[in-house]
Write a structure and sequence with these properties.
The chain is an alpha+beta fold and 213 residues long. Helices cover 15% and strands 39% of the residues. The protein is built from 3 helices and 13 strands; from the N terminus they run βαββββαββββββαββ. A 7-stranded antiparallel beta sheet has the order 1-11-8-13-6-3-2. The longest helix has 14 residues, at 32-45. The model has no long low-confidence stretch (mean pLDDT 91). Residues 110-207 form the Fe2OG dioxygenase domain. Its cofactor is Fe(2+).
């Protein structure tokens, strides 16, 4: 599985995928002291709860913990379970604005929601999946920001099985856009060598249907 990066500073305009999608690497968005402060605040003040998924009709509680926040009480259904968004915290709003400012030169966007994931150590990960729910719309833009332990993040092409991987560092921002969710899956790999927590923020534009449009 080829690595997606080298030791050179990332070029945010460069596409890290070979085909059928776009992933841009912005590198660390925060200096270490600021990233440390954000991690501590997120760990202490986020209303974490263990996630649930439905597999073969059975509701399973995951070791991973999550939180779903947004501009309104959006009802977001994935893995067979519906979650209702809670309001933004001051910390998350400040982080969101910095993310939006960082990616504006390539794709100006205002995110209206964020899914947070907490992995207590390397024994917890995320299986192969795509963020392709209808509420996110076609060619959705997802900004993924990592705090805490460095973890291996991988992509797998749905048709060819081709894989790419990268090591996401403390404070690092990547953005998935274009047809990425239609053609690629992604996963967070487990590792017995990781003993510290990681918090991942995925900023999204959630669409509502019906009267709200």
């Amino acid at each position: 599985m080829p690595w997606l990066f080298d030791l050179a500073p990332p070029d945010p305009a460069a596409n890290l995928l070979p085909c059928d999608g776009i992933v841009n690497d912005y590198g660390p968005l925060f200096a270490p002291p600021e990233a440390d402060a954000h991690l501590a605040a997120l760990l202490a003040h986020t209303p974490w709860r263990h996630d649930e998924v439905v597999i073969h009709g059975r509701r399973i509680t995951t070791a991973r913990q999550v939180a779903w926040v947004g501009d309104a009480a959006f009802a977001y259904t994935y893995s067979g379970v519906t979650r209702t968004a809670t309001p933004w915290s001051a910390t998350l709003l400040a982080i969101k604005r910095q993310v939006e400012a960082a990616i504006a030169p390539i794709s100006p966007i205002v995110f209206n929601s964020c899914l947070l994931n907490l992995y207590r150590d390397g024994s917890q990960g995320m299986a192969w999946h795509s963020d392709d729910e209808k509420e996110l719309g076609p060619e959705t833009v997802i900004a993924s920001l990592s705090f805490g332990a460095a973890r291996t993040f991988a992509f797998r092409h749905k048709r060819s099985g081709e894989k790419r991987k990268m090591l996401l560092q403390h404070g690092q921002l990547i953005v998935m856009r274009g047809a990425t969710q239609s053609h690629w899956q992604h996963a967070l790999m487990k590792s017995a060598r990781v003993h510290a927590p990681r918090v991942n923020l995925t900023f999204r534009t959630f669409r509502t249907f019906g009267a709200a449009g």
